[in-house]
Amino acid sequence: MTPSSFEQLLQDSKKLTDLSANSGLPQFNRDLVQIANESYLLSSRFDTKQELNANAHYFLAQGGSNSHEVANSLKKINTSVIFKSSDMIKNTNVEIQRALESRLRDQLHSNWKDQKAQILQDWDQQDDNTMFGRTHKGDKESLAYKKRVSSYQSTIRAFNNSRILHEKVPIFSQFKTTSQSAECTKAQRKSLEDAWDVAAHIANESDSYVDKIYSKHQHDPIQVAKTNRLLINRVKCWLEQQYLDVVNKELTFGAFQGIGGSPSVLYRMNAFSKMMGRKLAGSVYLEVKDETPIWLFVYILVRVGKLDLAYEYVENRQAAFCQAPAFLGFLKEYVHADNHRLSEATRQRVCEHYRMMDYGNNQVDPYQKLIYKIMGRCELHLKSVDDIEMTIEDFLWLQYTLIDEDSQSEVDKTDSYRLLDLQRTISAHGTDYFDSKKTNPWYYFYVLVLTLQFERAISFMYTQQPFRLEAVHFSIALAYYNLIRIPNDLLKRSRELLIVDSDGTAYFNFGRLIKEYVDLLGDDVENTALEYYCLITLYQSAEMKSICYGYIANYIATLDDYKRVIGDLSTYQTGSIERLRPLLGIGQSDEEEYNREVLARVANKFRLDNRYKDTVSIYLSMGDNDNALSILNHQLDLAIERPMSVLLGHTHHSLPSSDQDLINYCTSFIQAHQSRLNTTLLRTCCSLLLILQACVAYERRDFESALLSIKQFNIVPFEGQDMAAVLHYGEVYKSSLDKISKKHIPGLISMIVEILSLLYKNAFDQSMRIPNQDQRAVFVEQYKSYKEGIRSTMAFVGIISSDIQPKILKMLLEKTTGLC
């Protein structure tokens, strides 16, 4: 640097602010002695032997500041003024306001979600009556739809009969036959029939044993992986057989072109490979030996599942594969290995050969690359091989050969490829990819079934109105083999059909689907709804059974002639549900469980709908007389509530009911079952019955009958009794009267006072108008007795005043002022 630069730096440094305001020491131009002395003074202010820590004065001292001066200055500051706390201004707590708004918003969205689901469901059921393909296009369409529904109902009824007898049912085959009545295009029919066939093969329907696939451990990862491997093998087997059928059809057609010879599989596959080789000639490089595209031929053998024949062919034609000398060893290990999985060392060698073919300069047969990819599961991020055109079946077959559902493999491995990964890929493409013209929804459904996405398949087809009937019954067939996953917390998801977890695993609300279908069956003369509800117990979990019982109970409660279903005890007639009880998991002799799970639910539904006679009838059929009597007591209580509320000046919104009908019913019930009833409940019923009779007579202005019923009740004195008698009534009230009757005593007293006051006024007026002394004496005697009755009643009020509201006491006193 030049001298002028140093001079400028000196001048600028003089302008800097002092580090310590009161030190009086110059900050610059100090010699070494001064700096040493000041450093010594600073260092002497604290103990250098003590460990350094985060205290503020240590930090300041080490930085060259006067920590003592700073501390003293801080002590002089009046913090009580500077940091004075301010009172919270009302309505300005932003955090609470935001939290409240957030909760309200979440609650609103939650409520709207439920309401929207209900609105959409109701709209779907009513809008032009189009649910499940029903339309108003004409009588032909309506008749065709009813015929389809009837055909499925007959199949379901026969299916349930077989279930009762524990017989295996080829349900996929039966539904496939029934679905022939559905109106489909040729392409739709082909996809629909293929879907039935592949589902039947996955379920192993040809076996005599019903394999409940997901009935147990559906949430256990190890068991799920084991189940997935089983299902993948079944789908692969079906795809291989389908491809073999295609080959045979091509060869049969080719027979007219001169292709014939030995019917052996090896010969026919060789002939087919030559046919394909000629079609691909010029567009794809094929390695041909003795007029046979050898790698294509090996692929075809592997594609139809004939691995042993492929190995036999390569072993016998080693010269043809001289350019791939290690291939025979790779193929041998692949064919004989468990689950056709190479050892890790061999797999790495196969992948090395694959990369050499993929990135080398030599021309390679694409089918050779494909075979190496299959054996070594190479480059799993690439789902196929270039230059090879594949159908969707070929593609899915290839994916199933690459998928490894080994539960011990790590998820983060680069060679990890699971069924869930394939399912995500297919779902991501969606229906627009597989049915871009929207002409064949069954094709996408078929692809979903092939990829074992039964839940998404049913959910998708359920959105296609013309084929909802088939979608529902396809789900029933899948449920028979427990191929549909059911969520654990199903009761919390009662409105959702398809439930997808965070990892992409799909579950289906099978019970809800059955419920929606039954709701749209219309007139159910033959109780077909019961047949469908019993399908819910195809899943034997306690939760599914509870849902089934609830649906059945709600359905029975909607029927006017419900005894046709549950039976009639009075006529010893059995109900139609008796035949289906084994399907509900309830034995014919297990009456306790049947009463608890079905009849009690029906009774509760009747009770909520205020159908007390039907509720009592259900309890009587269960042999539960006490509960039946409790229902009558509750009904009497409700009936008394209305007139009592009017008497006490309260608002009551219920309309007058047929109280006399209730009185007659309760009277006949007591007469018929008195010997079998609980004494306490019976006493309550009799008390409430007398109170209601008094209310009915009072509303008819039949005061004498009202007082007669109250007298029979024998709790409230009103006939001029002496004080000892009144005290006795008070003791009876406190010791023996039930709670239900007690709550109506204030209203009953108000009624007595009202009646006696009116009778007193009438008698008094009569005595004043009649000139005859003898006749007048009769009326005088009457109004005096009424006055004494009011006094007795008010004395009783004084005894029980703690049980009467002050407002009512004041009203009673106002009414009786001058009469007591």
UniProtKB/TrEMBL annotation:
The keyword Protein transport appears for this protein: yes
Biological process according to GO: poly(A)+ mRNA export from nucleus; protein import into nucleus
Pfam families in UniProt: Nic96
Alphabetical list of InterPro entries matching this protein: Nucleoporin_int_Nup93/Nic96
Location in or out of the cell: Nucleus envelope; Nucleus, Nuclear pore complex
Keywords linked to the UniProt accession: Membrane, mRNA transport, Nuclear pore complex, Nucleus, Protein transport, Translocation, Transport
Keyword Nucleus: yes
Domain of life the protein comes from: Eukaryota
Any one cellular-component term (Gene Ontology): nuclear pore
UniProt GO MF annotations: structural constituent of nuclear pore
Family: Belongs to the nucleoporin interacting component (NIC) family.
Protein's name in the database: Nuclear pore protein
UniProt source species: Choanephora cucurbitarum
Source species taxonomy: Eukaryota, Fungi, Fungi incertae sedis, Mucoromycota, Mucoromycotina
Name of the encoding gene: mug87_0
